[in-house]
Specification:
Length: 342
């Protein structure tokens, strides 16, 4: 079995095998970084360059799937909040599905809480009692923060907030804030979530917090998490609030110091701009559209009744082979958009 998860900053592949009542054994993991979240925060759409990068990543994943004898159609592939918030999400999903033959679907916010609920059942340390008492599960992503509250093993409250690491950076840039104001901004947004949680579960009820996501994995790695991972169960790393607060302060100081150093180093290098003759536009070999991409464009144009010669003349190109990857992706998006409108 294989699962692919498309997030705001990473595409992850996990290949595993079922072992009867003993659960699941992970055979292979692969992770590649992408700029989906940054694209959506900046333009509310996934850029053509990022789309083609995702296609290339899936093609590299296909090699692993073939080694384990897994058909693309059998892969469970999902996309999360970052893709769901993109204006061109349907075109993005269609492009990946056609290029990889993997059926993708977007996870509904309501489903996310249920998956967290199931994940608690496979936590390795059963005696820690995650199945009992009050537990709040939070995943901090790039664009959203998902929260689930369980009481005695039953879901009582679930909510998704428009808060994430990339969203906070966007708010900082829009407000003209520097790294020194990051902690204050993050604390304010976190307080809003905490108040909302208490309003829904009761102010006096004790609870345990289980944090998930890239930022928390980073925090665990920076502090003391050296526990060896099990291939069959989830890992929970215990972090004290005081240690986490110290780490946040340290990260903020590092960011401020890096910004100050950057400004100081930039000042001596400021010189009057020199006039230069612009170099003629030149396309390197790596910029050209791949044969697979060109073939897909031709097949799409034929099915939609589009004359590619007209498009080449509009771009002042003589041959289809002269298209760059970005131009080819743009034509693919245009043709698919026209087909939907028709």
């Amino acid at each position: 079995m294989a699962v692919i998860d498309i997030g705001s900053t990473f595409i992850r592949l996990t290949i595993a095998e079922k072992r009867g009542e003993r659960g699941v054994r992970v055979l292979e993991r692969a992770v590649q970084s992408v700029a989906i979240g940054r694209d959506v925060v900046k333009e509310r759409r996934i850029s053509n360059a990022t789309i083609e990068q995702c296609v290339s990543i899936l093609q590299s994943f296909a090699v692993l799937l073939k080694e384990y004898g897994i058909r693309p159609e059998a892969v469970q592939a999902v996309a999360n909040a970052a893709v769901r918030q993109a204006d061109n999400r349907d075109a993005f999903i269609d492009r990946l599905s056609i290029a990889s033959r993997i059926p993708f679907r977007m996870i509904d916010p309501g489903q996310i809480g249920y998956y967290y609920h199931l994940a608690l059942r496979v936590i390795r340390n059963k005696q820690s009692g995650w199945e009992k008492g009050n537990v709040a599960v939070t995943e901090i992503g790039g664009l959203t923060c998902s929260l689930l509250f369980r009481k005695e093993g039953e879901i009582r409250f679930a909510q998704t907030y428009g808060i994430g690491s990339l969203r906070l950076l966007q708010q900082m840039e829009q407000a003209g804030l520097g790294p020194s104001q990051l902690e204050e901004l993050a604390e304010g947004r976190t307080r809003e979530v905490a108040i909302h949680l208490r309003q829904n579960i009761g102010a006096d009820e004790p609870l345990r917090l289980l944090f998930m996501g890239r930022e928390m994995r980073y925090a665990a790695a920076r502090l003391h998490a050296k526990e060896k991972a099990s291939s069959t169960a989830a890992i929970v790393t215990r972090l004290s609030v005081s240690a986490l607060e110290r780490l946040v302060g340290q990260v903020v100081r590092e960011s401020v110091e890096a910004e100050i150093r950057g400004k100081q180093e930039a000042r001596p290098q400021q010189r009057a701009p020199q006039r230069q003759q612009p170099a003629p536009a030149r396309r390197t070999q790596g910029d050209g559209a791949s044969p697979r991409q060109l073939q897909y464009l031709q097949d799409l144009a034929n099915s939609a009744g589009v004359d590619l010669n007209n498009e080449l003349r509009r771009l002042n190109l003589g041959r289809l082979d002269d298209l760059t990857r970005q131009q080819c992706s743009g034509l693919i998006d245009d043709i698919r958009g026209s087909a939907r409108a028709a």
